[in-house]
Amino acid sequence: MAVTVHVTSVIQQVVNGQREFSADGETVGELIANVEDSYPGFASRVMDEDGEIRRFVNVYLNDEDVRYLGGKDTALKDGDTVSFLPALAGGAA
Amino acid sequence: MPRISQAIVDEMVAHAREDLPDEACGMLHARGGEVTAAHRIRNVAASPYRYEMDPLQMLKLERGREESGETLFAIYHSHVASKAYPSPTDVRMAFFPPGELDQEPMFPGTYYILVSLEHEEADVRAYLITRGGEITEEPIEVV
C-alpha cells in the first residue's frame, strides 16, 4: 500500500528534514520498518526497546489515533496519510 | 524580545482561568514575527499539574500553518498554583525523547509562555529553553 508519511518537529531530522514523503506498508508496523530501511534511525525514534510505539509519540492514521485502532497492526490502504508527532506536554509537577 | 498584543495576553489569561482547576495549553501563531492568533488546545491530561496537548488539534494547526505560511511563535500553558517559570517537567518535555537535554529542543526558537494564576493578578512570562536545558527569560513587550 502506498501511503503518505507526515512527520513533524524533531522526527523530521531523521528523514533528511522532510515533512512528507511516500512509503509502503500493509500495516503501521510494516510502514515503520520500511521507512527505517530508507532512513536508519527512524524506528528507534518512534518505537521503544520492546518494539512498541513510544509513549510520547503519537501516530495518526488520517485523523485517528492508531492507539485506538490496531496500534502497530493497524491496516493501511492506498492513499492513507500516517502522521508521526511527538507529544507536547509539561506542567507544574 | 517577544512582542505580543494586550489582546493576546488577555486571551491566554482568560483561557487559563476558564480551564481551572486544570492547566490550560495552546499555541500562538505568527507571520513575520507578528503574532496572528492564540489557539486554545485541549489538555488531554486534564490535570492541575500536567498538560498534554491534543495531538489531533496540533496536527490540524500544523496543517493550517503550512497552508497560511504562519510559524509556531509560542507554546503556552498555565501553572495554576506556582510561578510563571518552566518546571523541571516543562524542561524535560521540551526535548525528544523527553529528558535528552544534550539535543536541540523540539522547537528551537519557539517561546515557552507560562501563565501563572498563583496570585490574584496573573503573571505571564516568556522563555527560551535551549540545549542543555538552559532557561532564558525573554521579557514580553506588550504592544
Oligomer: heterodimer
Proportion of β residues of chain A?
Answer: 25-35%
Helix-strand category of chain B: alpha/beta
Largest sheet of chain A: 5 strands, mixed
Roughly how many Å apart are the termini of chain A? 43 Å
Q: How large is the count of helical segments of chain A?
A: 2
Number of domains of chain B: 1
Number of helices of chain B: 3
For the largest beta sheet of chain B, what order do the strands appear in spatially? 3-2-5-6-7-8
Order of helices and strands of chain A: EEHHEEEE
State the CATH topology of chain A. Ubiquitin-like (UB roll)
The CATH class of chain B turns out to be: Alpha Beta
Low-confidence stretches of chain B: none
Kindly estimate the percentage of residues of chain B that lie in beta strands according to DSSP.
25-35%
Say how many strands of chain A there are.
Answer: 6
Concise account of the structure shown:
The complex is a heterodimer of chains A (93) and B (143). With 93 residues, chain A is an alpha+beta fold.
Describe this protein's structure.
- The complex is a heterodimer of chains A (93) and B (143).
- Chain A is of the alpha+beta class and 93 residues long.
- Chain A has one domain: Ubiquitin-like (UB roll), CATH 3.10.20.
- Helices cover 17% and strands 28% of the residues of chain A.
- Chain A has 2 helices and 6 strands; from the N terminus they run ββααββββ.
- Chain A has a 5-stranded mixed sheet, with helices on one face.
- The longest helix of chain A is centred in the middle third of the chain and has 11 residues.
- Chain A is globular and about 45 Å long.
- The mean pLDDT of chain A is 95.
- Chain B is α/β, with parallel strands linked by helices.
- Chain B has a single domain, classed as Cytidine Deaminase, domain 2, CATH 3.40.140.
- In chain B, the strands form 2 sheets. A 6-stranded mixed sheet of chain B has the order 3-2-5-6-7-8. A two-stranded parallel sheet of chain B has the order 1-9.
- In chain B, a hairpin with a 3-residue loop joins strand 7 and strand 8.
- Chain B is globular, with a radius of gyration of 14 Å.
- In chain B, 38% of the residues are buried.
- Classes of the chains: A alpha+beta (93), B alpha/beta (143).
- Chains A and B meet through strand 5 and strand 6 of A and strand 4, helix 2, strand 5 and helix 3 of B.
